[in-house]
Amino acid sequence: MTIEDEVRSLQKFRMFRDVEGAKLKLLAMISDRVVFQPGEVIYAQGDASDAVYIVLDGQFKVSLVTAHGVIDFAEHVRGVLLGEAGVLCDQNRMATITAETPVVALRVDREPFLQLLKESRPFNHAVVRELGRQIMELNNICAQLVERLPKGTPAVDAGHKVALTATHEQVH
Amino acid sequence: MSLNFFSYVWHHSRREQLIVLIFVVASLPFYWWSLDVPKRIVNEAIQGNVFKHGEAGARLFDYSLSLPDFLGGATWQITDGLLLAQVPYLFALSMVFLVLTLINGWFKYVINIRKGVLGERMLRRLRFELFELVMRFRPEDVRTTKSAEVTSMIKDEVEPIGGFFGEAFITPAFLGTQAITAMAFILAQNMWLGTLSLSLILVQGVVIPYLRREQIRLGRMRQIESRRLAGRIGEMIDAAPALHVFGVALYSAAEIGQRLGTLFHIRLQLYRRKFAVKFLNNLLSQLTPFIFYTLGGYLALKGRLDIGQLVAVIAAYRDLPGPIKELIDWDQQRADVTVKYEQVVGAFYKDTLLPPDPVREPEPIPRDAPITIVGLRVMNGRGLVQIDRMSAAIGRPGRVALVGAAGSGRDILPKVLGRQITDYQGSVTIGGHEVGAMSDREASAVMLYASGEPFIMSGSIRDNLCLALRRALPVPDEPKDADARYWREEALATNNPIVSPDADWIDYHASGLSGPADLDAAIIQALRTVRGYDDIFRVGLTSKLGDDLGEDLAERLLGARGAIYARYEQLGLASYVETFQPERFNANATIGENLLFGVSIGKRFEAEKLAHDPFVRSIIAAEALVAPLTNIGLKMVETVAEAFQGLAADNPLRERYSFIDEAELSELWPQLQGTWQRGQRRQFSPELRDKLVGYALMYVEPRHRLSLIDEHLVARVLRARGSFRDFLPAKDAGEIEFYDPERLMPAATIRDNLLFGRIRYGKMHARDKLLDAAHAVLDELGLESFVVSKGLEQDAGPGGRLLSVQQRVTVHLARALLRQPDILILDDALSSFGASEAHMIMENIFEAMAGRTVIVAQSNDDDLDAFDLVLTFEGAKLAGAERKGSPSGTQAQEGRPVAPVREPQPQEAVK
């Protein structure tokens, strides 16, 4: 797999359709190609958000550590961008991501990622669009969940956090 | 420090000055005699006055002592002297003259030396006093001081003053008496001639200083202007990066050019003046001999003056303009120097200075004495109110958050508490001591202020960490030998400190340490608290192993290499590292590393220079590697040129290909295109080819992923590796250390020595896991402290430039914690960390500071649960003080009722 192959894979994603080829090449050049075996943790809740992953292939699972134990939040997830929210908001990882199938990804370190956002407007747009799409998807999921609740259930408290803020010790 | 130059000099050096004066006075009779003897040589010996009446001999050296007539006029003959014929008489007198010349010379020598030493001592004292004064500037004044100007004042401007210290009293005394002696001599010879030359000298003495007044004014202007120039240049050099960014180098150049022009203009005027005065001076001096020759000659011809007298007068006069001129020069210098002195000392003279450190250790302030703020009002230089009539009581120990928007009182109060702002109204006291009036020693004993701007001094990381600890008062060593005694006496003579900076200044006791042995552990603890330990450990791992290891240590490190590998096998991490093996190509190392298969010791085989080395080049050519490597380099350049188009040369995105220099590339690219257009892709010029080969040698397949390495290339590189080793000339054997599993490589980093291979690309978290495992093994083998101490030995660079921003802040915080102050004030000190990291550091700091006080400036949306007291600011106003139950169980706060949200009026807040 060479940079050229990676650029071709990236070009297939809808989110990158407006990004010029040279910038996709740049993206590939500043990233490392990483492979996760099924069951391997891509990152764990509470880790420092040190990188963004662009998943070229594979499925993964999202789980949350809460006061009531571990919730497997979503399974068989396919997504292009992974971990960008933590990097953008300078927050630790909010969830644990585990590979379900072999996951091939490009790992872009935090700093180069932020730099690239400044450098390329189309890339910036692509990321913003992707974030917007994720929010719409989440809204959809939430709406479905609310539908399942009995009538008269009070609205959720937006200030309440379910995920435990993992302390440093829990990470290791 | 006296503002008057002469009283300053007299105050500090009168003993020395008097000693030199005694020498001066003692030298005068000899000076008189040396004037007298030539007259006798001419009159008595050569013209033979004493032999006129046919005497065969004359008496020499007959001395008698007679009392004045009113005491009886008795005479005692001391010696009878010698009876000499004319020629011996001449020789004897000449010998006397020679001896007198020697004696005069000796006096001059001794006086000059003493004067010089005196001047140097005073200069040392003055410089030290000025430095001490600057160190006592209030923080407000320091901020408006240009460091380059102060440097120029302490270093350069006082230099001429230093030369004048010795002259201040001695020169007028010496030259004055000399001139008076000479004058008296002339007067004694001939009243007329004497009066005449005296009046000419008086004219000189009056006119010339008058003319020089303008010169002094210009001199002062020159001084101020050049000081400004120094300040401005210093400022611009500090701001150079920004000036480049803005592209305003031309504008700054214009400003400096103009300043230099002004300086030139002043100097030009000064020179004109100076030489005009000199001309006049010379003219007046030459006029006198003219009178002597004409008038004196006339008188001699008339027989009213004998020739010997005339010669003596002229000889005396030849000596006279010297002292007189020097005296006038001295006066000029005096005016100059006193102006300079007043200028410099005045610039260092502020209305308020911080109190000097007390001689005795101040009474410690109790750990639970509260901080009381009554009617505090702070205004900045432009009269803007930054804190408006604030009163509060901060109980200790406690965790205090100062909350508000940036620029509000929350940013100002910590500076007042931390004595960064000492110009305030109202009172801020800790245990009854006013914060603004505390001496450094007193304040630093109870609290420590840390801002977001770390001050890192040049030296190692360890030096910087220990800086805050260096407040012990080491007892000066008793001087052991003459040399040490000399150093000590000189320091004493100039009021300089007598304790060497190399003494152990670390105050172990105040930081809860029992002695030097505990220091390393404390440093490690402090680094852990601010979460900088791993970083320093890594710095240690990436620092050179060095060859000053003990045998035992080397043995253990080599053992660690095996142990770490065994641990990797055990943890299933072994496949993450590709070790160096003589017969195999290491895919995770560069092609160049694969070729060398060793660590460059000198400069010759450094990675960047490899392609230009004749020996390496010949090996590459011999193994037919030139063409494939050129192709790799070409492909890399093409990729870079395409992807990095439009990126600034220092864009961090270029990091991975940083070895392809932007400037080089823009030079290369047209050449490459030119070659292509001519259809000669294979025929690059030798320099171009070397460059491309050089790039190719930096290529790592899994890192750069251009799919450029095939088995043929691998086979050739491996062959080249063999021939490199076989054909390396014996004289170059010291330039490289080949990889050998059984040996350490002093020129390589500790990490490379331990891993003995490269971490594979494409494995997530591999590096962290590997390093953590290696860390654990090192820990078990007791080698951790060795690695950390290597990390601590790293040079921080001037202003910490060799450290990353984070490392600087980490060092800054760790050294604050190392001190274990009773009160720690964090003024935005964690701002360069991400929110979550800052939070974790904060928690660690709270833990480390348990039972003591931490005052932190926080922004509004930070988590405030951990604090006992939250002071909220709205602009300059204190809007609320909220006391919480202590979640962490700080005993002093427990059970206290929650205070009203609004802080009560001042009267109520004071105890």
Descriptive overview:
- The complex is a heterodimer of chains A (172) and B (911).
- Chain A is of the alpha+beta class.
- Chain A has one domain: Jelly Rolls (Sandwich).
- Chain A is 39% helix and 26% strand.
- Chain A contains six helices and eight strands; from the N terminus they run ααββββββαββααα.
- Chain A has helices spanning 3-12, 21-29, 84-89, 110-119, 121-148, 168-171; strands spanning 32-36, 41-43, 51-57, 60-66, 69-77, 81-82, 96-99, 103-109.
- Chain A has a four-stranded antiparallel β-sheet. A four-stranded antiparallel β-sheet of chain A has the order 2-7-4-5, with no helix packed on it.
- The model of chain A is unreliable at 166-172 (pLDDT under 50).
- Chain B has 911 residues and is of the alpha/beta class.
- Chain B has three domains: 5-347, ABC transporter transmembrane region fold, CATH 1.20.1560.10; 371-471 and 803-909, P-loop containing nucleotide triphosphate hydrolases (Rossmann fold), CATH 3.40.50.300; 595-733, no CATH class.
- In chain B, the strands form six sheets. Chain B has a six-stranded mixed β-sheet with strand order 10-15-16-7-17-18, sandwiched between helices. In chain B, strands 6-5-8-9 form a four-stranded antiparallel β-sheet. In chain B, strands 1-4 form a two-stranded antiparallel sheet.
- In chain B, a hairpin with an 8-residue loop joins β2 and β3.
- The A-B interface holds A 1-4, 6, 22-23, 25-26, 28-30, 32-36, 40, 42, 48, 90-92, 107, 111-112, 115-116, 119, 167-168 and B 639, 642-645, 647, 651-653, 655-657, 702-707, 761-764, 834-837, 840.
